Amino acid sequence: MGKILTEEQVKHYHEFGYCSPVDVLSETEAANVRQHLEEAERMYPEALNPTHRNNAHLAFCFLDEIAHHEIILNAVEDLIGPDILLYGSVLFIKEAWSPGFVSWHQDATYMGLVPHDFVTPWLALTPSNLESGCMKVIPGSHSGGILRHQDTFGEDNILTRGQQIPDVDEDQAVNIELRSGQMSLHHAQVIHGSMPNPSDRRRIGVALQAYMPPHVRQTIGENYALIVRGQDTHGDAIPLRRPTQDMDPDAVQQRGKVNNNWSNILYRDAAEVRSY
Predict the structure, then answer these.
(1) Total structural domains in the chain?
(2) Which secondary structure element, helix H or strand E, spans residue 61, and what is its range?
(3) Of 17, 64, 204, 270, which residue is 20 to 30 A from 33 by alpha carbon distance?
(4) Does the global pTM surpass 0.90?
């Protein structure tokens, strides 16, 4: 029995590459986080616009608190052990009636992190369901290694390079439906994606991408990481600082440095580079 996850949930994660749902916040608590986020969007539009939604936990205290949430870390510890580093985060926001989608892909493809022993919690701040374009996964696909991806740079594709795996058998897909305040956890190699949001409501999720044990290393760029529990027993990470207040200059500078590093890693050898 783990700290949060049952033996069945841990087994399911290792066998199928994902685990869902896991209760983290009450719906009221999730609504409060959403309120903080939307207030921050109004106050700092340049810091949270659609091309600048990576690693906001380094500049905003309410997202840093999510990154250190005890339930999330306990669940992650059940999967990867007690020494936990956070590589980064992404806000996945689909506006109402948005054509934006996420193509079939594997997170580990362009991240430069090896081995692929890292896990991404995806926390819903609004209901994430079929109506709003929830995540879907191909169970068991994490065990097949990294597959060939094609860069499309599609206008409505939310991913950096519009990367996609061709010829995925969508009949095997499982929809990951979450109420606000619940999370899913998925393996670095599991094939997943999501459809557009045709509903009249925003769909907001926070991907903590990803939590990793200290033996995972960066092979392309700098290995910036936030030590969120335990120790960096390998000493390979460049430790990051938690923000002391929203958008303080040091935090903004640190976030910019990390995002530039991400861009260099994710766009290595790419035919083009989007605003990031």
Answers:
(1) 1
(2) helix 61-67
(3) 17
(4) yes
